[in-house]
Amino acid sequence: MSTTLFLTEYTALREKYKTLLSGAFTPSVWKSKQEYSRNDLVKSTIENGSYYRCIQAGTSGEKEPVWTTTFWSEITDGTVKWRQEEPVFILDTEPSDFSYPCILVGNIFPISEVQRATGNQPASELMTYILIITYQFSNKTYQQTRLEAYDILGQVQNVIRAYPTLSSFPGVLRSVGGLYILPETLPVFFKIQQSWITRLLVKQEG
Questions:
Q1: Using an 8 Å Cβ cutoff, are 83 and 70 in contact?
Q2: The organism sits in which domain of life (predicted)?
Q3: What phi, psi does 153 have (nearest 5°)?
Q4: Which of these ranges, 97-111, 112-126, 146-160, 168-182, has the smallest mean pLDDT?
């Protein structure tokens, strides 16, 4: 019996990472008299280039609040409290059009092969790097740029913890976050690189 690693499966796995990450940064449209939970993300009914994350759970008011676009400004809405955020772009490569802040989902590569205790079926430990990049536009300081990157990192780590089998992706035994590092970069950027490790069964051909 021969064992084959299908590289095309890595493409599907990478797209799954992107889909799961996108869910944490895709807003719904604000609604009146709606119950919102902490960490929910909305945008105004008339788009203004900002999103708003719930930092205090509650029920929204009858009328839409006045949405401010100042970096991380807070807005009270009924019993809900929102915090302004910039849209986060989920990308394959670093943008040339200043689409920041962004999350780059890197290529997937095997770091080891492990043998299962039952069934004697091999599995591969696969790693990818999730690179978070924020940029110091004129609307925020470098310290705010740094804090924004760590805030996005927290959201990424929440996604990794929430999907230990990548939402039952075929062949995935477990998926966990590894360490993160701070790559060197120009002082107007701030970068955090988070590793994402997945154990995937290797297909066997008879």
A1: no
A2: Bacteria
A3: -55, -45
A4: 112-126
In 3D, which of 168, 169, 161 has the Cα closest to residue 196? 161
Distances (CA, A) of 159 to 110, 164, 193: 22, 9, 15
- 74-129 pLDDT, tens digit per residue, is 999 999 999 999 999 999 999 988 899 999 999 999 888 766 544 667 788 999 99
Tell me the domains of the chain and their CATH numbers.
Answer: 7-24+89-199 (3.30.70), 31-85 (no CATH)
Q: Which of the two residues, 66 and 115, has the higher pLDDT score?
A: 66
Q: What is the pLDDT of residues 25-48, one digit of tens each?
A: 999 999 999 999 999 999 999 999
Closest CA to 25 of 130, 120, 122, 119: 130
Q: How many residues does the chain have?
A: 206
Average pLDDT over residues 170-185: 94
What pTM was estimated for this model as a whole? 0.90
- Which amino acid is located at 118 in the chain? T
Closest CA to 156 of 44, 20, 47: 20
Rg of the Cα atoms in the chain: 20
